[in-house]
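Please go through the protein record below and explain what the tokens say about the fold. Record follows.
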Amino acid sequence: MITQLEVGGIPTVLGPTTGPMHAGLVFRVGFADEPLAKRGITHLVEHLALHSFGVADYHYNGATSVEYTFFHTRGAEADIVKFLNGVCAALNDLPMHRLTTEKEILRTEENGRSEGPTEALALWRHGARDYGVVTYPEWGLSGITPDDLRAWVGRYFTRQNAALWIAGPAVPAGLQLTLPTGRRMPAPAQSSALPVRPAYFSGPSNVVAWDAVVRREARAAVFSGVLERALFRSLRQESGLSYTVHAGYEPRGDGSAVISAFADALPEKQGAVLGGFVDVLASARLGLIDQAEVTTVVNQRTEELTHAEENGSRLPGQAFNLLAGRPVQSLDEALAELRAVTRDDVAAVAASAFADGLLMTPGLTSADWAGYTAAPNSSDVVVQGTTYPSLEDPALALIAGESGVSVVGDGSAATVWFDQCAAVLAWPDGARRFVGHDGIQVSFEPTLFMNGHALIPALDARVRPELRTPMPPRDAARIPIPRPKPPQEHQPAPAAPETESGGTAGAVLGLVVLSPILLFFGLIGVVMLISAVADSEDTGSEVILGLSFLFVAVACGFGVGKAIRKLRNR
């Protein structure tokens, strides 16, 4: 049974466990709270707060998630007290001398992290704000200062914004949890980068993924289980198209939840996997759900909850509920809500989820044939301003105006408005990357645009200073330079124009030479043709010879005519 109490003014849930005592201190702050320009600041606080513990002889760790940051430990009571009190002491006075080192550790950690199969969905659904920020690298690390960290801790890591869970017989003696005073911070409001839903976008060639935002309730959790079973049966057992099939349910602090699903695919089978995936979603939307499937999932969830109650693993979720303003739910209440879910309840969730769905299709496949609308991947509007042509591509240009910046080319455009800018990545060599709230990016390499370096001060002046995110210097080899243009085909030199005197002399000479020849050959040719007609014998040779003389006369006639025209034009 879970008991509610307070420790040091912090709301606490206490429950029994079958194993060693474990406890955790959670704060209502996560990746979704970070502005993109400060991406990574919460994770950095977590690392700094844990530095002093080094290599302890008990298990401890910290974690930063989308909405929460928590520190947890397992062991003897004295170790738990030492750890949790130590975390609070560190939060009150972060070891700033470790700032540079911990930043490097976080960069190394990020470098080894791979993107999950459903991670891109959050970016396309939410853009570069709140729940979409989690998909971006921790770009803000370079520019985070000690003052930034103190302000972040003072806002989010406070007594009023914390909750505690303890799995054990009682609260350990000596637990003080000294934290600054603040206020409870609600979960961020969800933004949307999708003008229409259901929507789709193209992703990697080896996976199909989907998600939807629905109300947070037991029947939605059951639907995620029913969906996973249906996808597994269709795509693995029956068709053999996929190896890994998964669906999940993730509650949020604002009363919503995200249902997500994915299935892997061979590139040559991507169309078949997409078709099977879409068919399962469509069947669920139409209510083609078996009551036996619902019962099976309910029974599985019931068993999981009962086991979690015994080992204390329900406690973290209940602490999260406290921070979200939701009541602590006893096991009996949770089981009763779960067992009340019917087939019709699950069908209703399926219909709602389909209407809100976002589908990631594999490779270059599309899903408009299935009723999904393509999510926007470019901008409809271009800013009014000065055009800076590309030094490489005549079809590409950057347009900078008072209200924003655009890149246009290849029949599309990307625009970021300065008043809707989430961050500007700034490199020392002058490169800039503008990221809009909708996730659209405009990259500017000053070396690749005409008068590019002269534009940098004007661009920097139009963006709020807090959005500027300094980036580490780039190696010189990574700074692009314009590619040399291909050599033009050789054009023959134009002929020298004739001089007036040279042209006249040539024309006169032509008349003097060609006129007598014209008269001689013309007269002989005519006489021979007349003679051939009058003479009935051996006319063939005379005709041929006469025509030959006339051919020479005609050729001379063309030369005489050209000479006369040239003389008339002088």
In short: Residues 334 and 445 are 56 Å apart (CA to CA). The longest strand covers residues 207-215. The two ends are 116 Å apart (CA to CA).
